[in-house]
Each structure stands twice: as C-alpha cells, then as structure tokens.
C-alpha cells in the first residue's frame, strides 16, 4: 500500500513497542473480582476497586495484551462528549439527569489527567480543547457554533470552514501510553492482569477461559466492541469499525500552511464524520469510518484496514488541508467500538448474581471508561452515590437484529449518511432528509 504500514494493532503501539502477553493464566483459580477485558474500562475498574479496598483479590483476564482493543487504537480524544443519546437518557432521568451525566464526564477529563500526573503516566496529555468545524450550510445549522469562519482560521485553517465551535473540556492523549500506564499502575498495586487468556463464557460465579476456570463472586464484563465474541452476547453490542491514518512528520512550513499552531483536537459536523489530532511528534492522526461492520460481528484482523479506506482518509485530509496534497502516510489501522441498539452506553451490576458490565460508548469511550470504572466500583461495593444515580446506570436496551439483517442495515445506514453528506456538500441549506431517515433506521 505504497509503503504505508497497515495494521500491527496501531501506530500508537508501534511507537511504544507492541508488548507480548504476560502472566498468562495457568489452570483453575479463584479471586474476589474477575474482570473480563484488559482495556481501559476493566483497568479503571480494577484501579478504583483496589484503591477503595486493597484487600480485594482482583484478576483481569485479557485475550491478547492490555490495551489491544480500542483503548490502544483510538484517536486520542479525552473528551467530555456524551457517550450516547441525550434524548435516550432524558427519557429515564429528564434533562437534569442528562446534565448530571455531562458534568460527570467533564469532571472525568480532569480525573484522568490527575491520575496520570499522580501516578507518573506520561501519555503526551495536553488539555487543549477540541475545535469542531462546519464546512457546509447544513453542517453550520446543526453545529450552531459561536466561531465565524475567520475565527476558525485563527485556530486552524480548514478549507471551506464556514463556522466552528470550541469546547475546552478535551485533552490530546497518546492512547497506548495511557492504557499501558494504567496497566502498570494496577499491576504495581497487586492486581493480576492475565494476558493471553481468552475468555469463552461468563456466568454467575465463574469465568471460563481457554486456560482454566476462574471462580469469583463478582464478574465484570468489560469487552466493549469485543463483546460479540463472548458466548451468548453476539447481538448485545454491534462491533462498529473505525479506521485511522497518521502522516509522516510535518515540516515547519507545512504546519504554518495549515495554521495548526496549537494542540487542539479537530472534528467536523459531517454525518460520516472525521476526527484528528496533532501528535506530540508533529504528525496528523486522522480517523473516520471505513467498512463500518463485518458480517457476523467479526471483530479483528490485527488492525488491518482496506486500501480504499486509507485512500478515503487521505482524501479527507487533503480536502481539509489542500497544502498537504502529496504528504506521505506512515501507518493505517482500524479497530472496533461497541454500539448498543439505541446508541447509548450503560453501566450495570446485579448483586444477586454478581454479574456486571460497562461499555457501549459509541466512540466516546476514552473519558467514559474512567467514569464507568468508578461507577462499577461503587456498584460492586454497594455504595449509593451520585455516580450510581447517573442515567446510564442500569440502562437496558434490546439486542441487535440477527444476520443478515444486521449487516444489511448497518451498511445501508452508512450509505445513507454518505449520500446525505454529498447532498449537503452540494449546497443543501438544511440537514438532508436522507440523514433523518438514517437516524430513524439507526434507532438514534
């Protein structure tokens, strides 16, 4: 693919060094809390549970290595963005409940930064905010941003930008450095992280793996997009694919040409949206949708993505920044995020069975994982707190349709969104009716 490294989990892991699985489970064992999944949800839950009660024997069970999934592949947005639909949460908790969840997510940005600072986790974190731009009249109507085109250009010179919105409650992060740092901290505190240990089934009091059975009165499922690979959970959350590319380092002249002198994150208001960051080593990492879903909820091919997806992201990059036409791409990869049928995340724990779960963050998980980990701590310990009263706690949603309806529906959905973007880019002054139909099909 023209010298572009493809897969190998992610650029982030290639930068810091892809780890080999360690502390593999050997035979049957028991513990107080078994956490299935070594991403940020599971690691944060382990961190806060151990902090609250150091006597707990906590085991994390991970099929590959800690951070192999979305936690080590994402776009590096530590964002206060709502992980789900405001209207869905409002149905159970009203607007006040949605406001409480938004406030908790904003506070979680500072919580992650604070933990990283206290624990010596160097993850290239800069609390830089996020700039969202509208590049058409329809996008501008949806965004309703406070920035004019000239004010957008003062921050980043995005071609065709007509308006923008700046949210200060966001930080740039190196995903692999963050998740590996949290994994180090929980290990140092005595939590066992059994990597290379694939879980095959979960039931009350017991987790079955390919290497033995773990018995525990509390079992927390924290698999996010990989939930579909667990027996009995194929239709719980849909594993949606997202892909990223990263450029070669930009020269000083190229940075001046795009006007991106700060560390703001960058997104747009398209239906098939993009997201980007300026990396600590002077590159642009840009993500968006490629093939949105693989038949049968298949989840991973070591992060490899399709050639046309790479070229699509290259085209998006140069459409935003024409001055970068011809710039080299160093790496391309993809991963899955968990999408519930109503596109809204949940955190749950049943004290009668000892089973709990968290996830379904619909692409806004880097911050939400921390809030979910603290909420799981309170639920497991039987605490009645502000966190356990948030509207995503105990949220239930119906399962996705069986195949082939699932595959047909998701692919049709993104064809509709792309068609809506084309109509709006051609000059439509309002949100396309095609996108409204797609939203209804999606269940948003």
UniProtKB/TrEMBL annotation:
Name of the molecule in the record: FAD-dependent oxidoreductase
Source domain of life: Bacteria
Pfam families in the record, alphabetically?
Answer: DAO
Extract the InterPro entries matched here: FAD-dep_OxRdtase, FAD/NAD-bd_sf
Its taxonomic placement starts with: Bacteria, Bacillati, Actinomycetota, Actinomycetes, Propionibacteriales
Q: Which residues form the FAD dependent oxidoreductase domain?
A: 32-379
Q: Which PANTHER family match?
A: FAD DEPENDENT OXIDOREDUCTASE DOMAIN-CONTAINING PROTEIN, SARCOSINE DEHYDROGENASE-RELATED
Q: Which residues belong to the signal peptide in this entry?
A: none
The species is: Nocardioides hwasunensis
């Amino acid at each position: 693919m023209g010298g572009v490294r493809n897969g190998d989990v992610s650029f982030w892991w290639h930068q810091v060094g892809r780890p080999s699985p360690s502390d593999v489970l050997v035979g049957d064992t028991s513990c107080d809390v078994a956490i299935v999944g070594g991403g940020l949800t599971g690691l944060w839950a382990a961190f806060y549970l151990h902090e609250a009660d150091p006597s707990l024997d906590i085991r994390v069970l991970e099929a590959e290595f800690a951070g192999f999934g979305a936690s080590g592949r994402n776009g590096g947005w530590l964002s206060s963005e709502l992980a789900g639909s405001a209207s869905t949460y409002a149905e159970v908790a009203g607007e006040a409940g949605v406001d409480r969840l938004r406030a908790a997510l904003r506070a979680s940005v500072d919580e992650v930064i604070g933990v990283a600072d206290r624990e010596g986790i160097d993850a290239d974190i800069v609390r830089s905010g996020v700039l969202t731009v509208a590049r058409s009249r329809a996008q501008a109507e949806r965004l309703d941003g406070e920035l004019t085109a000239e004010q957008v250009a003062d921050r980043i010179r995005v071609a065709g930008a007509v308006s923008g919105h700046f949210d200060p409650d966001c930080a740039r992060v190196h995903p692999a450095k963050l998740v590996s740092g949290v994994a180090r901290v929980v290990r140092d505190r005595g939590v066992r992280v059994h990597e290379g240990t694939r879980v095959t089934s979960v039931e009350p009091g017991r987790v079955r793996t390919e290497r033995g059975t773990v018995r525990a009165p509390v079992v927390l499922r924290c698999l996010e997009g990989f939930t579909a690979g667990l027996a009995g959970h194929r239709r719980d959350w849909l594993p949606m694919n997202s892909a990223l590319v990263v450029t070669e380092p930009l020269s000083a002249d190229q940075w001046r040409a795009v006007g991106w002198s700060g560390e703001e994150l960058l997104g747009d208001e398209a239906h098939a949206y993009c997201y980007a960051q300026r990396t600590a080593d002077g590159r642009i990492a840009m993500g968006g949708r490629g093939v949105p879903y693989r038949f049968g909820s298949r989840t991973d091919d070591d992060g490899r993505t399709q050639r046309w997806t790479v070229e699509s992201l290259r085209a998006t990059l140069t459409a935003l920044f024409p001055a970068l036409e011809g710039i080299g791409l160093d790496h391309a990869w993809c991963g899955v995020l968990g999408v519930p049928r109503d596109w809204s995340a949940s955190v749950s724990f049943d004290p009668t069975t000892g089973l709990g779960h968290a996830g379904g963050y619909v692409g806004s998980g880097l911050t939400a994982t921390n809030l979910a980990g603290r909420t799981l701590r309170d639920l497991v310990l039987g605490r009645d707190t502000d966190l356990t009263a948030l509207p995503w706690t105990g949220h239930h949603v119906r399962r996705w349709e069986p195949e082939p309806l699932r595959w047909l529906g998701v692919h049709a959905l993104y064809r509709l969104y792309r068609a809506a973007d084309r109509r709006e880019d051609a000059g439509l002054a309002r949100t396309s009716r095609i996108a409204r139909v797609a939203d209804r099909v999606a269940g948003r």
